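Re: the 586-residue chain
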Amino acid sequence: MEKWIEIRKSGDFVEWGNKLGIDPLCARIIRNRGIDSVEEAGDYLNGDLGLLHDPFLLPDMEKAVNALLDAIKAGEKIRIIGDYDVDGVTSTVILVKCITAAGGDVSYSIPDRLRDGYGINDDLVRKASDEGIKLIITCDNGIAAAAQVRLAYELGMKVIVTDHHQVPYSGEGDEKNEILPECEAVVDPHRNGSVYPYKGICGAMVAYKFMSALAGRKVSTELDEALEESVQFAALGTVCDVMELTDENRYLVREGIKRIKTTDNMGLRALMSANSLDASRISTYSLSFVIGPSINSTGRLEQAGNSVKLLLSDDYDECLKEAAHIKDLNDHRKNMTVTGLDTAVKLIEEENMLDDRILIVFLPDVHESIAGLVAGKLKESYNRPTLVITRGEDGLKGSGRSIPAYNMFEKLSEVKELFTKFGGHAMAAGFSLEEKNLDELSSRLKATSGLTDDDLIREVRFDACVPLEYASVGLVKDIAKLEPVGVGNPGALFACPKVKITGLSRMGKEGKYGNLTAVSGGKRFRLIYFGDMDVFEGYIDEKYGQNTALELCAGKTQIDLDICFEVGLNEFRGNESVDFKMKYYR
């Protein structure tokens, strides 16, 4: 069941449209995204890196820059410790490139997902000490590593933590106390007392801000050039870590995508080639669903350090070989995810788990590296907070994905004594625990979910009720100016009630997708549907009578359907037309 909600923010959209040079409907969409003035709308459409916030507003940034400069000037060995996802990889690449350009003696280490788990650990700290490292810099991790940071100091090293995850705490309510690593600097926008104006940045953005602050010290022109190249990596990390594309994230991602389209980075070029991507048409979709998953596959199934090496390489032929291998890895990962998802769905249905407001699914034989992917797909399907737990070499490992009504980090923090390792944020978390604690974890989380029936109803928010015939090529081109779109800045979605559907057919491999013929305003339109066609046809038969879907396919009947749809531009042999994609129906 879905709840359809029309976004109704007020404004003079004709005036906005005239001042901004766009269709009034496009102006309304911008207003619907929370933009309050035509001046802000101008920034929304045209904002660039000049609108990024001052990096020195981040906690401890001055201390971090000074500690790094001291290490560089002293010729000390510096070790970057990143993480095995896209955000961790891109954070590492940014720091390695920029610190090298600043004259630093820098190396990197990425934890092995299966052997090391998430983030910095005792083994990585001891290895750094054995190799003569004097300064460790974490990126996309470290905020929850007080013990590992303490070990580094005991071994004679210094540490700078850069992270974007929530700060762990002790106590409850007003008695909450942050547990911070004791080190040279802890740069994290979520720290208590932080005056940074926009908290929703990823690890790669924190790393980029760190290097921006360093470049502000006029270190070298080489650093300035490396920082410019790093924009695309920060953008990739932002999109793939599912950060909201609002405020400075939006400006940076827009600029990053521009640079990726013409990139000189051999690794990115090779990844685009291996995945048959047209560089001129790169979008947030390309990053989220093609390039990002390819990079992630190395951390899931091999070593994420291979992706770091790829993005640091200047040898295009070697990059092409590695990118082809990474694509194969990602294809294998897709098959594993499908198998894991099928197993999970079967278990949920057999055990009637949908009676629970939170899904806790134990899949002991599923590879732990895809637990988060399976959790994400289950969350999307059932609109419930979902934890997928697998059996690893050293106990159980879990990954969670959440819905807006359920702050997963806070809820899991309430039972953190059950975990041997835990971290995350409101919408996602990862953890390890002993198998003996699984039942208690499940019972306590289910008992304290606090979720209501309304929380579990998926909301479909659309921008306006629009007849199909209003969607012109000009409007579609104006809507394209809303890019980059994603979390926090969704693409334009319209509704049209009682659309007359006069035909239906299946298309694509195994007839997986739908091709609908619609009539509106006396004109005929083609609607493409990429959802589950079996479910759609079942809905048609249930609402209009048995065999109605078959009769529609034969052109022997017609029905009225409320639809939500997106529009896009189709270009063929120099001709432009509007593409209609049906997203929801009722």
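Residues 94 and 230 are 6 Å apart (CA to CA).
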